[in-house]
Amino acid sequence: MEIKQASKSLKQMLKRCSSLGKKSSEHVPKKGHFAVYVGHSRDRHVVPITFLNHPTFKIMLQAAEEEFGFRQEGGLTIPCDQNIFLSLLDSITSY
Description:
Blueprint (H helix, E strand, L loop, with lengths): L1 H17 L14 E6 L4 E6 L6 H14 L8 E2 L3 H12 L2
Parallel strand pairs: 1-3
Antiparallel strand pairs: 1-2
Protein name: Auxin-induced protein 15A-like
Keywords: Developmental protein, Growth regulation
InterPro entries: SAUR_fam (IPR003676)
């Protein structure tokens, strides 16, 4: 039951985040991708939506929920060091 609620909340958050920045098409991720912001500097990364099913990315999303909740302003922020995030992306890509 908790997983369904978390999934529904995540979908709502992604929908809200996807509507941000639509003033300029250069900021809109291409189809099948979404933007996340990483660390204190909030560096923007565009990742494939398929990453949402990867166990490592799910852990990062849980960390974001624990730190910021589902009502984040200004996009989905992953509370992770930039270098660690890039390393995790590499491991997900080679999965």
